[in-house]
Structures are given as structure tokens and as C-alpha cells.
Amino acid sequence: MELEINGRKQQVSAEPHHTLQQALRSGLGLTGAKHMCGHGACGSCTVILDGRPVLSCILLACMCEGKAIQTVEGIAADPAWKPLIDAYCKWDAMQCGYCTPGFLVTAKALLDRDPSPGLDECREALAGNICICGTYPRHAEAILEAAGKIAADAGTIAADGTIVAAGMIASGRGGQDG
Ligand code: FES
Ligand code: FES
Predict the structure, then answer these.
(1) Does the structural domain 2-74 have CATH classification 3.10.20.30?
(2) 41 C-beta closer than 6 A to ligand 1
(3) How many other CB atoms are there within 10 angstroms of residue 118's CB atom?
(4) How far is residue 123's CA from residue 140's CA, in Å, rounded to a whole number?
(5) Shortest-distance ligand to the CA of residue 19
(6) Which of 44, 68, 134, 174 is most solvent-facing, going by the fewest CB within 10 Å?
(7) How far is the CA of 143 from the centre of ligand 2 (A)?
(8) CA of residue 103 to ligand 2 center, whole Å
(9) What atom in ligand 2 is closest to the CA of residue 95?
(10) Rounded distance, CA 25 to CA 101, Å?
């Protein structure tokens, strides 16, 4: 089957009953989507499918044909998302690191749909990700810091400090309608 992964169409050898996680790990050597529970309960296998975080261990690979898949490998290789990786390191939001790819992918999906989340939004977005080491307190702080850095890099912080969509400051609209 053909899958579009991190912006590149790739031929993947997978059986109809194989999960997306199996196709990524065994078929393509993309081991960032970790296998922890294997039945949709921990979030460690999270990838982004057409803009939404999904659990690759309970999704058939064949159902993902024609859709855009992003994995942690693609996020880590994209300079635009370096602030997120840096913030996770700075806040030490990991211990053994096994759950970290799932958290990072979930965080990226959150920032895609809401570039300026609050603490509650961060915690809610990460509610499906489990960390056996108990690193929970630092994830939201890392995401908030990354959101600010990404907005600053993109020049999307308005004069009042709010983060607005790219291009709005340049157009003089400053986040207002019209
Ligand atoms: S390994 Fe997929 S949700 Fe746990
Ligand atoms: S850092 Fe070890 S499971 Fe989360």
C-alpha cells in the first residue's frame, strides 16, 4: 500500500490486518510511535492523521491510504518545531523517555489547532497520554513556552502580547476580524 508520511508518499509492505503502528515500525523503521499498551489506552503510539492526533496501535494501516500522516520523526526534523523539542528538554519533561514521542505529537497537534493554548487546554489535550514515570507537571509548561517561542519566530505576537494567526500583524489587523 502507499502511505503519505511526513509529506512523502512511500510504498509500505503491510497486510490488511496490520495496524498503522506496525506499518510504521516494521514496514518503514519509523519506531517513534511507541508500543506500550497496544490497545488504545496510553497514547504512546500517537501520530497525526489529516491534522488530528490518532492512536496508531488501533488504526488499520489500510484505512490511512490517501491521508496525511505525521510522525514524531517528521516533527523532530522540521526546524519550525525545534522550539517544542527544546522546551521539552529545558523543562526536563521526560524521564525514561518512552512516552515522550506520544506527548510531543499530541502537543504538536494541539498547537496546530490552537497556537496559544492555556494551561487547561494543554492538560486537556494531553489527558490521553500516560507517563509511567510521572512526568506530568512539566508537559504543559513546556508546551506554553514552545507556543510563545514559535509565535515569536513566526512574528505572530500582537502588541498586546496575544498570539495571532500568521500574516495578521503584517496586514495590520492584529487579530481582529475584518
Ligand atoms: S500503544 Fe497505542 S495507545 Fe498505547
Ligand atoms: S518518561 Fe518514562 S514513561 Fe514517561
Answers:
(1) yes
(2) yes
(3) 12
(4) 6
(5) 1
(6) 134
(7) 17
(8) 10
(9) 1
(10) 14
The number of the ligand nearest the C-alpha atom of 58 reads: 1
User: In angstroms, what is the span from residue 46 Cα to ligand 1's centroid?
Assistant: 7
Domain ranges of the chain: 2-74, 78-154
83 neighbors 119 (Cβ within 8 angstroms): no
User: In angstroms, what is the span from residue 15 Cα to ligand 1's centroid?
Assistant: 20
**CATH fold for domain 78-154:** DNA polymerase; domain 1 (1.10.150)
Cβ 173 under 6 angstroms from ligand 1: no
What number of residues does the chain have? Answer: 178
pLDDT (tens digit per residue) in 142-178: 999 999 999 888 776 665 666 665 444 433 333 333 3
- Which strand ranges, in their side-by-side order, compose the sheet holding 52-55? 8-11, 2-5, 68-70, 46-49, 52-55
Q: Whose CA is nearest to atom 3 of ligand 1?
A: 40
Q: CA-based Rg of the chain, rounded to a whole angstrom? A: 17
Predicted confidence (pLDDT) at residue 31 exceeds the cutoff of 60: yes
The three-class DSSP label of residue 79 is helix
Complete DSSP assignment for 37-49: SSSSSS-TTEEEE
Q: Do the two domains 2-74 and 78-154 of this chain adopt the same fold?
A: no
Ligand nearest to the CA of 106: 1
